[in-house]
Design a protein that fits this description.
With 244 residues, the chain is an alpha/beta fold. 41% of the residues lie in helices and 23% in strands. It folds into two domains: 73 residues; 120 residues, no CATH class. Strand 4 and strand 5 form a beta hairpin.
């Protein structure tokens, strides 16, 4: 029995240590996300203060991270192979963002024209708004959309367009379009009557990550305190039983 008690004690110590380590790890990850968001906001502010540059100049800057650079360009032409980015929300409504491939002097570039409300019948695509803007200078921010590993692209490479896509995956979209693409996208930010444009490069405020971090660290402390109190009570009970 004494040996069994020691084994149970060691196992309980290990389980609590694992749980506390996991909770502290989650808290530390939230702190790192806070730091990343703060750095990103600083980068955005700096690049907005620098104002617009032409797309042709962007390649000469040799930036390690081109996100959030504000540029202007005049498309040479645009493809008729249009893409609808699915499951996009605006003011609580579900819709699509229209992605148009345009040719520039630097190569083919995906352009996010903005949000369009979906139809009640999810199988029916929205009407394509005006693309007249593509014949004039465009202004917007460079973005590199992140990939969701839980999303699997299901678009068929059957040559039929417009096509619904689930996320911006440049390699897969290049195959669909049969065109090499620049490794970033232009998110148009200038006002429009046909599209809703809400450029929000940082969706969650950095301060929220600190709140989440405090919750995880708090749970870790609580788990440790509960375990220590429980162990002490157990020892008291054992000591009392020995006296009897």
């Amino acid at each position: 029995m004494p040996n069994n008690s020691k084994v149970l004690t060691i196992v309980s110590h290990l389980i609590v240590a694992l749980v506390v380590s996991l909770l502290c790890g989650l808290g530390s990850w939230q702190v790192s996300r806070y730091i990343e968001k703060q750095e990103r906001i600083t980068q955005i502010n700096i690049r907005q203060a620098q104002g617009q540059i032409s797309h042709s100049i962007l390649a000469t800057l040799n930036l390690a991270d081109v996100r959030d650079v504000i540029i202007n360009l005049t498309p040479l032409e645009h493809s008729d192979k249009l893409l609808w980015l699915d499951n996009q929300q605006s003011n609580g409504q579900v819709g699509f963002k229209l992605i148009v491939p345009v040719r520039t002097a630097e190569g083919w570039l995906l352009v996010n024209m903005g949000w369009v409300k979906g139809r009640k019948d999810r199988l029916a695509l929205p009407n394509i708004p005006s693309l007249e803007e593509l014949s004039r200078p465009l202004a917007g921010a460079i973005s590199i959309p992140g990939l969701n590993r839980f999303v699997t692209e299901t678009a068929l490479n059957d040559g039929i367009f417009p096509k619904i896509i689930q996320q911006i995956e440049f390699t897969e979209i290049a195959k669909l379009l049969d065109k090499p693409l620049l490794p970033y996208m232009l998110t148009v930010t200038q006002p429009s009557q046909d599209y809703i444009r809400e450029w929000t490069p940082v969706v969650m405020a950095p301060e929220k990550h600190i709140g989440y971090a405090m919750q995880w660290f708090g749970l870790a402390i609580a788990a440790l305190i509960i375990y220590i109190v429980a162990r002490r009570k157990k020892r008291v009970v054992e000591d009392e039983s020995k006296l009897k």
